[in-house]
Amino acid sequence: MATEVLEAVKCYHCGSECEQQVLVYDEKSFCCDGCKSVYQLLSENNLCNYYDLTSNPGKKISGLGNRFEYLDDEDIKNELIAFRTREMSKISFNIPDMHCSSCIYLLENLSRINKGIITSTVDFLKKEIHITFNEQIISLRETAELLAGLGYLPEVKLNRAEEEVKKKKNKTLLYKIAIAGFSAGNIMLFSFPEYLSVFDKVDIEIQNFLGIISLILALPVTLYCASDYHISAFKAIRRGMLNIDLPISFGMLANTTKSAFDILTFTGPGYFDSITGLIFFLLIGKWFQNKTFESLSFEKDYKYYFPVAVTKIKDGQEVSVPLKNVKTGDTLLIRNQELIPADAVLLNGVANIDYSFVTGESVPVTGERGTKLFAGGRQLGPAIEVSVLKEVAESYLVQLWNQELYVKKEKNKIKRFTDFIGKYFVLLVLIISVATFVYWIRIDTNLAFKALTSVLIIACPCTLALAIPFAFGNGLRTLGTKGMFLKNAEVIGKLADADTIVFDKTGTITETDAADIQYEGMEMTSHEISLLKTALKNSTHPFSKLIYQSIQGAEYGKVESYKEIVSAGFEAMVENNRIKVGSATFVTGLPSEKNGLTSRVYISVNDQVKGYYSIKNKYREGITDMIRSLAGKYELHLISGDQESEKETLNKLFDSKVKLNFNQSPTDKLNYIKSLQAEGKKVLMIGDGLNDTGALKQSNVGISVTDKEYNFFPSCDTIIQAKDLYKLSNLLKYCKKSYWVVVASLIISLLYNIFAIGYAVTALLTPLVAAILMPVSSIAVVLFVVGGTNYFRNKLL
Amino acid sequence: MTILLFLIPISLVVALCFLGFLLVSIKKGQFDDDYTPSVRILFDDEKMTKTNKK
Amino acid sequence: MLQEELKNKDSLDGYTTVSYDNAIVRNFSIATVVWGIVGMLVGLTVACQLVWPELNLGLEFTTFGRIRPLHTNAVIFAFVGNGIFAGVYYSLQRLCKTRMYSDALSAIHFWGWQLIIVAAAITLPLGYTTSKEYAELEWPIDIAITLIWVVFGWNMFATILKRKEKHLYVAIWFYIGTFVTVAVLHLVNSFELPISFMKSYSWYAGVQDALVQWWYGHNAVAFFLTTPYLGIMYYFVPKAANRPVFSYRLSIIHFWALIFIYIWAGPHHLLYTSLPDWAQSLGVVFSVMLIAPSWGGMLNGLLTLRGAWDKVREEPVLKFFVVAITAYGMATFEGPMLSLKNVNAIAHFTDWIVAHVHVGGLGWNGFLTFGMLYWLIPRLYNTSLFSKKLANFHFWIGTLGILFYALPMYWAGFTQSLMWKEFTADGFLAYPNFLETVTQIKTMYALRALGGALYLAGVIVMTYNLILTAKAGSLVANEDVKVAVPVEHASHTGEHWHRWLERKPTQMLIASLVVILIGGLVEMIPTFLVKSNVPTIASVKPYTSLELQGRDLYIKEGCNNCHSQMIRPFRSETERYGEYSKAGEFVYDHPHLWGSKRTGPDLHRIGGKYPDSWHYNHMLDPESMSPGSIMPAYPWMFKNTIDTTNTAAKIAAMRKLGVPYPEGYEAIANQELKKQAEEIAANLKASGIEVKSDKEIIALIAYLQRLGKDINVTQEATK
After folding, report:
1. Nearest beta carbon to residue B13 from set C168, C481, C517
2. Could A104 and B22 be called an inter-chain contact, meaning their C-beta atoms sit closer than 8 Å?
């Protein structure tokens, strides 16, 4: 195969520019063997259509292919494989890299590449692939590797079962909506003559006939589609309580019975049209609500963060075992970039652990044999062997996570309000309706029944029931588009409530990886820079990476020798030049003068000290303005895991009122929040990383900041994308406003109810009118809240 | 207009028939993915005649 | 079953071959073109006859009244019908990744359908007709249609069942919708009581018959001319443009919305008739609601081509599609507008409606078919289109044809309607003589014929182009392709694959049970319908045997194609024709003869308006009575004698349908007939006309003179 150097040749497969080399194969150039081999594979199976559908559809094959051994483990298979027989198994993967019609084409033609694959179906929008394969021919692991090999790195998803349950629930709702909509539509159609009241004697039989059809159509709606309301009402009664579903359900049933009675006795057309319509609207409201939550999955537990399986060393052999089977005393092999699943002690190798997920600090902790390593750390550099001290479930991190005290008990206003409605309003309605009935029964049975149903129908507080999901559902969506993802609608209420904001420093107001890097010292020649860059390339230390990224210049081919001294630095030979990079002590020999502000990395070339790179944390964009704008309205606190290095800067940033606290352990943070709450403050905690989990959970509402959406979240109420953090004050304002919109709408519907009931008790109001008025009012309220929230969105965001 | 006693049930039965189809196909997940199929139909089947395996 | 499929698969390293049946598609395509030309030729002929009536060559078999139904049937069921089947058979196989379930069924379907068409082409000119619009074919053919339709459905559903692709593409839904609804519509509407081979009476009478007829008529348009073509659009437009449909979600909603709304919109064809108000308003509401899904579909179709306009510029196939979809949009907007009562008051009975349907027919159905054929034939013959130039020529001349057709018709419609409704200052009709309003628009008729001619010319060019294309290539009768073996059609909700296979048939069973149930209803209900036909107007009496024979001649000659029998409650109509029509007057009309177009004046109150001699001369030579009339002469009615052999049978049938003929009337029916015939003959003799009393003309005159008189009987009696 020819290898020549041209400039700016596009890779036929992935379209990226071929920098170092160009591999040519059937007159097509490729940037790397990965791309080329994929092409070969496809052309052999004449799937080259792949390249005709869209040009350069491929994805560069990433060097570090994840290891899929664990997919050979029976337990894992059983957990992952949805359905299994001897010659057929079904598996689903997430394929984030799926991006064009070519992808669909290729992924759905896997069976051409390996006949073990029976079918593969893609869901493009969900970026999922569903594969049916024959385990006699191809194993689960091979399947995953096949995908990875094609440049579609599959993401294994556990907890399928839960997802299925969710899907099922959504579907049931869809059925209900379909049925309710269908019946409502047809019943309205059949009530048409009634609306026009154009029946003459000849058509009376048709009227009755239509009535009966309506009845038949309506029963499934009031009984099945509205079942949730009946059930919840029934439960409430059994618990000797009242909830807002009670009058809804009671009203519906009363309404249904009355209508059915009218129709069967040919005394009237009934008013199924409006009741079915109402149920239809209620269900739509529910659906709207669910849709908005689906987008993000919360309450992830550590399983999402940890690998599915780890490599265990069993009498010399490397075997992959599922995480839950890891026992105390097991020896595990932790490779570069792999996680430490359980608290363990280092057996051999050099630990260079990045605890940024746990502590939020990007500076890795190094250690030799015997050092205790905590679950959640990520090993950087050569593989290490560790011996497990505690089982995963007992490890510090997980403990922290599952601690009882994290479970919130307090309720927010909305909840209280609806409960209030549930108790008193509902009780009131029932009392009034009964009273009305009793009053009228002495005068006229028919009238009494009329009044009763009217009261129940018109008063049933579904306007109240609707206002909240619609307003907050809408708010939820809006915030989502603005980079703030709420766990559920109620969080809006909590956010609106909060009066105190507590910030975590690292990763919250500072960026986790990006940092300010300055070089101080004597000029370096481009040659020296190249040497340095080459040397740095080999170090996995984050500082090395940062510096490497920060300096421009060519690189030389290879490093002759490289040795890393733990917690000091490294020494490398490049083109016969000794490059030393590391702490002052290591490079200059002099003791490093303690300067908390920034960390320094010294450089020497051939033992000539050149100078140092000072690396200091970088604050997120617009953070200053954000904090200023918040300062007025909220009481601000800062709690940080690291030492007081940047007190000055922080003081400048926050105004003096802010209490700054350093060297806070997770538990300290937690207690700090507690103490604030003890003072009766509603605390809004903004943090990231696991170490804040306790605090986040303890706080009345916890916001976790994330750089990437697919990043791992501790269980918090809200996730905000780092790049949108600066909007925080506006977002909070928006929450307050939409909260008030809801309250306003609730007041409106209360007033409506008062007047309506007042009118209904006089029995002047026919149930038909009542039944028409109710959905109208509901719709009015819905429009009001949605309109209101949208108004504030446009105004604030 | 007794004919309506005849036409309405029939129309309704037809409509119900389709409601049934709708529910079943929701159940079957026919509408779970409302994008990919529209792309899928664009791929022409591979003709047997021009199979040039290397 | 799966087992050997898997074995099969291994032998083919991961593949099963599927061989698509292209021959059947080719056959249907040819049929489409052939019948298209025939149907349009007939259309052109009838169009010309409206300008030059003598073009019927003095033959009864080529007279407007008889071949106008031939035109409609040919273009709808032969041209579009075969077009549908071509499209379905091609796309269904590919969407299901499997061959049609049974070649035998396919063949039966194909030849059966052609046979039906031939039968129609023979019987209609011979005057065998039920007079029900778009359902004129007599009962034996109706049965044949039912059978063949079942064959089609069987073949289609079986194919869907054995499909190798889990998802049912939206096009298939449209096909299913078409099959089910058309089946039901046809069954319900063709419910008739045979009295002899090739003669039957509708079970329903008057208003009820009219309602059924237009419930059918409207839905025939909806589910024969629209839904299947939407399915075809959703398959062929994306294929031809090689880009996915604009919004697949929208297309799904489009289907379900159409299905649930369309079925109710029928009554808008009967606005201002004797149909109850609320039923009319209902029709209006639903027709208006229909705009939403229809336009959803249209935009979805057009937007599919967004960003591909460059392609459209040089690809004739896409050009045809664009115009077709636009025409669909226009027609589906105009339809609901026409169903608004005040618009309908103007448009109904005029050429506006003719224009409306032809925008749909020529634009939507025609052009979509042409586009499809231009795309299909080269693929079937594994070659490329013989000449894009000619295709483009076809496109332009076709478009021109549509314009030349539609615009004059709209113009004619407005003009005539306005003239009908115009009053002088003194409150008299400005044009009391109906003929004036006709002669006024004769030129428009001529132009329309020109438009038709252009359109037909285009089709002939296409035929030539396609023939040469086919010659250039060779038919790939069976297209062998590789497809992956299906394992489960179940959604990935972890459902067991074969459970699905078990369940789907049960669904089908349920569906078929429902159809059977409908059949049951069809048999039971009419019996009690008959009871409900109690006359609401006491003075309305059944037709005498002679009048009944006359009425059947009226039907045979297709008079209802040009003359309505429904006077709407407008001053302009009551002034012109007399008292407006009441529902009660039609209770003995099996079938109703309300008509839908007034090329000639309404005849509901013609009875007693003119002397018998006038009718005699008018039928012999219309020009003699009304110079410039475009009505053809009916000389044969003066030669042919009335067929009295079936009189008794007809009376019996009518009684069976609830018409209260006195007991034993059958026996004396023919004497009665003769008696009345003699009277008329004598009457004519008095005005110097010698005619044997057994000629058809006598019966016709008898019927015409009876029309619409019953409600006046009382007055006459008193004087």
Report:
1. C517
2. no
Contacts (Cβ under 8 Å, ≥6 apart) of A269: A191, A194, A207, A210, A211, A214, A262, A263
Q: Residue B43 is nearest to which of A105, A206, A209, comparing CB atoms?
A: A105
Which of chain A's residues have a Cβ under 8 Å away from the Cβ of C536?
202
Measured distance CA(C292)–CA(C288) in Å, rounded: 8
- For A309, list phi and psi in degrees, rounded to 5: -145, 160
Do residue B21 and residue C263 have CB atoms under 8 angstroms apart? no
Contact by Cβ (8 Å): C18, C98: yes
Closest CA to B45 of C94, C5, C236: C94
H or E segment at A32? none
Report the side by side order of strands in the sheet with A569-574: A510-521, A608-619, A599-605, A577-582, A569-574, A559-565
Q: Residue C313, Cβ neighbours under 10 Å: how many? A: 9
Peptide bond between residue C591 and the one before it cis (omega within 30 degrees of 0):
yes
State the amino acid at position A586 in one-letter form: F
> What is the DSSP annotation of A75-96?
HHHHHH-SEEETTEEEEEEE-T
Question: Kindly report the CA angle at A338 between A337 and A343, in degrees rounded to 5?
Answer: 130
CA distance A640 to A569: 27
Say what the ipTM of the complex is: 0.73
Q: Using one digit for the tens of pLDDT, what is the confidence trace for C494-522?
A: 444 444 434 554 555 555 556 555 555 55
Which residues of chain B lie closer than 8 angstroms to A175, CB-CB? 23, 26-27
In tens, the pLDDT along C31-83 reads 999 999 999 999 999 999 999 988 888 899 999 999 999 999 999 999 999 99
- In the three-class reduction of DSSP (H, G, I as helix; E, B as strand; rest coil), residue A339 is classed as strand
Please tell me the distance in Å from A203's CA to the nearest CA on chain B.
7
C386 DSSP assignment: S
Nearest neighbour of A196 by CB, restricted to C9, C278, C492? C278
Round to whole Å and give the CA distance between A414 and A475.
15
* C439-474 per-position pLDDT tens digit: 999 999 999 999 999 999 999 999 999 999 999 999
pLDDT at A295: 42
* Whole-structure pTM value: 0.74
With an 8 Å Cβ cutoff, is A199 touching chain C?
yes
**pLDDT over 70 for what percent of chain A?**
72
Q: Do B45 and C18 touch (CB under 8 A)?
A: yes
A745-760 confidence digits (pLDDT tens)? 878 877 887 888 888 8
CA B52 to chain C, closest CA, distance in angstroms equals: 13
Question: Which partners does chain B have (≥3 C-beta pairs < 8 Å)?
Answer: A, C
Contact flag C493-A164 (C-beta cutoff 8 Å): yes
| Window 488-547 of A, Cβ < 8 Å to C | none
C-beta of residue C482 within 8 angstroms of C-beta of residue C15: yes
Task: Give pLDDT tens digits for A395-434.
Answer: 665 655 444 333 444 445 555 666 666 667 778 878 888 8
- What is the tally of helices (H) and strands (E) in chain C? 30, 4
Candidates A54, A83, A157: best to mutate against C (most CBs of C within 10 A) is: A83
Considering only residues A520 and C603, tell me which one the structure prediction assigns the higher pLDDT. Answer: C603
Nearest to A326 by CA among A397, A400, A395: A395
| Contacting residues of A for B19, CB less than 8 Å apart | 178-179, 182
Give chains near A: 3+ CB pairs under 8 A.
Answer: B, C
Q: In sequence order, what are the residues at sequence separation of 6 or more whose Cβ sits closer than 8 angstroms to the Cβ of residue A552?
A: A529
| Residues in chain B closer than 8 A to A101 (CB atoms) | 39, 42
pLDDT at A214 over 90: no
Whole-number Cα distances in Å, C469 to A246, B14, C241, C464, C466: 72, 43, 21, 9, 5
Q: Are A719 and A296 in contact (CB under 8 A)?
A: yes
